[in-house]
Design brief:
By secondary structure, the protein is mainly alpha-helical. The chain has one domain. Helix content is 68%, strand content 3%. The protein is built from 9 helices and 2 strands. Helix 2 runs antiparallel to helix 3, helix 5 runs antiparallel to helix 7 and helix 7 packs antiparallel against helix 9. The longest helix has 31 residues. The chain is elongated. The two termini are 27 Å apart.
Length: 225
């Protein structure tokens, strides 16, 4: 019997059964979007340094890169809304930096976004509406049926704490660097704590979801009612 990346042991046969056929990484898109999001920041820092710390050149290069990434996403069949939101994020970062005249403020939007995300995920868990369940349930076409399954609700809540952790980690690293105006270290941290961290978080979330469900549970695709 062929098993998928996320699978559970079948109590009656001892075989591994797929649940779901695709991994959580495939469902959530892995680190691809996070990897795309790092490109404008890397280009901003590189051009800012090479141009003698010209904020205008760095901002223009970052915005051009953001447009290029959005176009590639759209042409490759990506979600238009995701491409647009990514571009708007780069535009907001550029406008903030140009307004304040401080290169480190290019990363302020991301810092605030991570802080807001940490709070949102925490509130969702405490309110028993864990965001990971909302996202995965939506992708699986379950709407809110997973909330009527206590075991599945608990598993989504546990896995969602990993996402809170990644946002908190970024805030903890970015904040002192931003205060110090350390542009190059901010750029390095932006890459190190972007797609590699997202990839690890998604994989760890899948593991927590898998291991926290009872052995006799039918799986993510089949919530108990």
């Amino acid at each position: 019997m062929t098993c998928g990346p996320i699978s559970r042991t079948c109590p009656s046969t001892g075989e591994r059964r797929p649940d779901p056929p695709e991994s959580l990484t495939q469902l959530l898109g892995g680190g691809r979007s996070a990897l795309d999001a790092t490109a404008p920041a890397v280009v901003f820092v590189a051009v800012w340094l090479l141009s003698g710390r010209s904020l205008e050149w760095g901002a223009a290069a970052a915005l051009a890169t953001g447009c290029g990434v959005a176009l590639i996403r759209w042409r490759s069949g990506g979600r238009p809304l995701a491409a647009l939101l990514g571009l708007l994020g780069v535009l907001a970062a550029v406008l903030v930096a140009l307004y304040t005249g401080r290169a480190a403020d290019f990363f302020l939007v991301q810092l605030v976004s991570n802080l807001a995300s940490a709070l949102a995920w925490t509130v969702s868990i405490l309110a028993r509406w864990p965001l990971l369940g909302i996202v995965v349930g939506g992708l699986l076409g379950q709407r809110t049926s997973w909330r009527r399954d206590p075991a599945l609700l608990r598993s989504y809540a546990l896995a969602s704490w990993l996402w809170v952790g990644q946002y908190v980690l970024r805030v903890a690293v970015f904040t002192p660097l931003w205060v110090a105006g350390a542009v190059l270290p901010l750029g390095v941290a932006r890459v190190a704590l972007s797609w590699p961290l997202v990839t690890v978080c998604v994989a760890a979330s899948g593991t927590v979801l898998l291991r926290s469900l009872p052995d006799d549970h039918p799986g993510l695709r089949r919530p108990r009612r």
